[in-house]
Amino acid sequence: MFINFWYGAIASTDLTDKPVKRRMLGQDFVLFRDSQGVARCIANTCIHRGGSLGAGKLVEGLVQCPYHGWRFDGEGRCRLIPSLGHEAQIPARARVDSYPTTERYGVVFAFLGDLPEEERPPLLEIPEWGKEGWRSTIQYFEWDLHYKRSIENGMDTAHNEFVHPTHGFSYQHEDVYKIAPLKLVETEWATGFYSEMFAPPLAEAKMREQSGRQEAAHIRVGTGHHGPANLWTFINPTPQFHIYQYFYETPVHEGRTSLYFITLRNWLTEPENDHRMMGRNEYVTFQDRDVLLNLNPLTSSSAMNKELFMPADNCVGRYRQLLRKWESWGWRIDSDEVRRTEKRVAYAIPSPGRRQHKGWVLDPVPLIPGQRQAADADDATAPAAAAGR
Predict the structure, then answer these.
(1) Three-state DSSP state, 74
(2) pTM score, two decimals?
(3) Mean pLDDT of 191-203
(4) Mean pLDDT along residues 300-309
(5) Looking at the 3D structure of the chain, how many domains does it have?
(6) Would you say residue 49 lies in a domain?
């Protein structure tokens, strides 16, 4: 699991007049709306005596700890310590980590890391959102599988023929079946590809009537990842009809993943068609889930020689290379150390505030030392070393 990326935290409609506790990256957070209605995300552990802020309540836009009544604002600062009296000065160390948020596409996203704004990787954008002629749906799933396996599955064009009957022919045309070489499209934070796939016609009669497609044909598809846990898939049944899917995945912990599945389509855009289209998404997604739940090992290996790759796996291979790069920057959480000290140490994902203030009560979550971290270790004044990069 990696810090310093945007993660889907909660659906906008689920954040109302109460604080909500969420586990992400193996740590607990509390989400709430402040007095202005702005979505906020702070660390869940009260720095007084370990109370769960997510089990408290909102008082005038502040989260009140259910244990001793300490109140925290959206910046993580304590605004009231009842035992000191209402007018008492609050100690400077009385603060918890606060994380930047943005509310888009019906989801509240939180940036879980310590990078300043100008250095943060961007959120995966949906250019079609809100544009005329497009209809969107959002679905949420949470399963006991590893997010890396899920992202890799989405970039695995060879599995469609065998996992999804609607996407291939279950290898009935084995004499002509072959995956064409992938032409990768890469950016600083992402890798993807476009290709053509021979697939059965869509079942929707209206779609077939409008497009004139009665027989199976090659359809243009594209897919790729953005950062460690986001995925996009573009399906073009015809040159005129498009289904664009965006997957915002968040590791709950190493063995469990939550997923916001946002689909945009430019056909059958009447609201009464949403249920049918979402059912289709669920049918296909559950097929993937059932395969992923039975993989061994649970997560993919960073050692490339532990799996026998083929040319069709090139996008997956590049994804793993980027993960290793981000690990070398010191962004990967040391999950083994977290488990070793579980229930004895309360951690927090380091927030941007740790670059501005000293004297934090909670320890930052352990990170696997990267090459940059090791190189900077000799210079105690290096900003990257201080920030855990």
Answers:
(1) coil
(2) 0.89
(3) 72
(4) 77
(5) 1
(6) no
In this prediction, residue 212 carries a pLDDT of 46
Residue 381 reports pLDDT greater than 50: no
Q: What is the dihedral of CA 49, 50, 56, 62, to 10 degrees?
A: 80
Cα–Cα dist 385/388, whole Å: 5
Minimal CA–CA distance to 202: which of 277, 269, 139? 277
Question: What is d(CA 68, CA 165) in angstroms, rounded to the nearest whole number?
Answer: 57
CA distance 318 to 309: 12
Could you give the maximum distance between any two Cα atoms of the chain, in Å?
81
| HSE-CB for 349 with a 13 A CA cutoff | 34
Per-residue model confidence as pLDDT tens digits over 88-119: 999 999 999 999 999 999 999 999 999 999 99
pLDDT value at residue 155: 93
* Residue 317: domain span: 135-326
CATH number reported for the structural domain that contains residue 288 in this entry: 3.90.380.10
pLDDT value at residue 217? 56
| 4 assigned to some structural domain | no
The beta strand positions in 81-216, using DSSP E, are: 98-99, 101-104, 107-112, 135-143, 183-186, 190-199
> What letter represents residue 181's amino acid?
P
The strand ranges marked E within the chain are 5-11, 20-24, 27-33, 39-43, 57-59, 62-64, 71-72, 78-80, 98-99, 101-104, 107-112, 135-143, 183-186, 190-199, 217-226, 230-236, 243-253, 256-265, 347-348, 363-364
Contact indicator for 252, 24 with CB cutoff of 8 Å? yes
pLDDT band at 387 (very low <50, low <70, confident <90, very high): very low
User: Facing residues of 138 across strands?
Assistant: 262
Mean pLDDT of the chain: 88
**Per-residue confidence band for 255, with pLDDT thresholds at 50, 70 and 90:** very high
Residue 228 lies in a domain: yes
Spatial distance between the Cα atoms of 195 and 214, rounded to a whole number of angstroms = 21
When computed from its CA atoms, the radius of gyration of the chain, rounded to whole angstroms, is 23
Q: Burial of 287 by CB count in 10 Å (0-12 exposed, 13-18 middle, 19+ buried)? A: middle
